[in-house]
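About this split. The held-out portion is used to measure sequence recovery: a designer receives only the structure tokens and must propose an amino acid at every position. Recovery is the fraction of positions where the proposal matches the reference. Here is one held-out target exactly as it appears in the evaluation file.
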């Protein structure tokens, strides 16, 4: 049974606060690219725009100074997230999992209802380094992950994500480090692959 997520993860902040598993050296030169995931290039300009969107939203927040101070690695964290998104989305495609617009709208409404409303959700995502116009994709990726878990179980889904990461030959610009496909990002040993920033602390049956 697929369990639908309705609250933000209590571990998400710790996930993003931990240093991503990007080490000090790169693999292949890709001029203009922050990373290459399969045939998809994440350009430096795309990454910079995502970061700029977050910084603009942070500056507009009453907690702007604190948010900025708490996101000193925003560029690297954002790149890790963009790579993760592509891996989860590809794993979904490869395994017959997709998210409809209706499902995404329902998920957004449920998350807002469970977390104090739209403004509160925007603030919580912003604290995780996700701008308001980036929330829907975060939720969509989390739904894909939830459906994979429901279809295969968490352990098998972790294996699928690692296999997908390997098959996409993720290559990161040396400026940002080297991708570690075994874990996907810095996480505890109990949860070796990503749980999106939209993952639920409280699950309930669909």
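Reference sequence for scoring:
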């Amino acid at each position: 049974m697929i369990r639908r997520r309705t609250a933000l993860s209590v571990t998400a902040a710790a996930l993003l606060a931990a240093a991503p598993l990007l080490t000090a050296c790169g693999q292949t030169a890709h001029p203009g690219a922050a990373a290459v995931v399969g045939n998809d290039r994440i350009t430096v300009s795309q990454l910079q725009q995502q970061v700029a969107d977050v910084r603009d939203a942070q500056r507009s927040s009453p907690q702007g100074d604190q948010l900025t101070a708490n996101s000193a690695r925003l560029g690297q964290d954002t790149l890790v997230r963009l790579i993760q998104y592509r891996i989860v989305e590809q794993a979904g495609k490869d395994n017959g999992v997709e998210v409809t617009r209706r499902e995404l709208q329902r998920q957004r409404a449920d998350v807002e209802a469970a977390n104090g409303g739209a403004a509160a959700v925007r603030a919580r995502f912003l604290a995780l380094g996700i701008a308001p116009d980036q929330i829907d994709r975060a939720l969509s990726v989390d739904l894909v992950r939830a459906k994979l878990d429901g279809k295969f179980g968490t352990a098998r889904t972790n294996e699928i994500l690692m296999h997908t990461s390997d098959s996409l030959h993720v290559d990161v610009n040396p400026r940002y480090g080297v991708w570690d496909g075994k874990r996907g990002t810095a996480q505890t040993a109990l949860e070796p692959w990503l749980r999106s920033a939209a993952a639920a602390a409280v699950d309930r049956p669909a």
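Annotator remark: The first helix runs from residue 12 to 17.
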